[in-house]
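Work Package 4 report. The design task specified in the project plan requires that, given a folded chain encoded as structure tokens, an amino acid be chosen for each position. We show below one input record used in the internal validation round.
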């Protein structure tokens, strides 16, 4: 069972779309692309696909990694826009 009741838990939303076929290793690889070298039990990482109708959550509880998926049958998730990188 996932215990997310910790008040110290922070949520990190990965803004660019991610291939939802990725699982444990693929999603941690995406985090490495964002200079997040190690999973941290203080954070819940949230990923979405391009159409914003699916999300995956990645959580490390110090004993292992959880991947949780959600697919909407209708509509999309509200998602912050991806900012443009400074050139």
């Amino acid at each position: 069972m996932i215990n997310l009741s910790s008040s110290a838990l922070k949520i990190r939303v990965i803004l660019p779309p991610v291939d939802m076929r990725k699982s444990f290793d693929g999603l941690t690889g995406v985090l490495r692309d964002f200079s997040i070298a190690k999973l941290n039990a203080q954070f819940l990482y949230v990923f979405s696909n391009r159409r914003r109708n699916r999300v995956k959550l990645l959580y490390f509880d110090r004993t292992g990694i959880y991947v949780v998926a959600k697919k909407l049958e209708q509509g999309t998730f509200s998602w912050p826009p991806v900012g443009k990188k400074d050139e």
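The mean pLDDT is 88. Validation will be extended to a larger panel in the next phase.
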